[in-house]
Design a protein that fits this description.
The protein has 1 helix and 9 strands. The protein has 111 residues and is of the alpha+beta class. It has one domain. Strand 6 and strand 7 form a beta hairpin.
Length: 111
């Protein structure tokens, strides 16, 4: 969870609010993580277009498979597919094929 720097490309270091990484990082590792997360979670800031567009495009270019954006009103967008171009708007439960068996009730998400 943030704050933790992740290097998505040369000169592109971001801090996703949360992420799932299927790689081992040594406990003594210093500096940004260089492995690309499979899933990133962004809690929408005041600059929603930066979280929704700019970060999504950087994540897609780096190879992130899935992105969840969570609004302060409890709304959720699940981005996936080629270059994170497909958007689902789950209304009851948030799930991911990357995390079989894990399920979040949308109404219980708090930001």
């Amino acid at each position: 969870m943030a704050p933790l720097d992740v290097r998505f490309a040369a000169g592109r270091i971001l801090q996703p609010d949360a992420f799932v990484l299927f790689a081992r990082v040594a406990p003594e590792h210093m500096g940004p993580i260089s492995e690309v997360p499979a899933l990133c979670v962004e809690v929408m800031s005041g600059n929603r277009s930066y979280d929704r567009m700019t970060k999504r495009l950087i994540y897609a270019e780096a190879g992130v498979v899935e992105l969840w954006t969570i609004g302060s009103d409890g709304s959720v967008e699940r981005w996936c597919g080629d270059r994170l171009s497909d958007c689902d708007l789950p209304e009851q439960y948030l799930t991911s094929p990357l995390l079989p068996g894990l399920q979040f009730a949308i109404g219980q998400l708090r930001v």
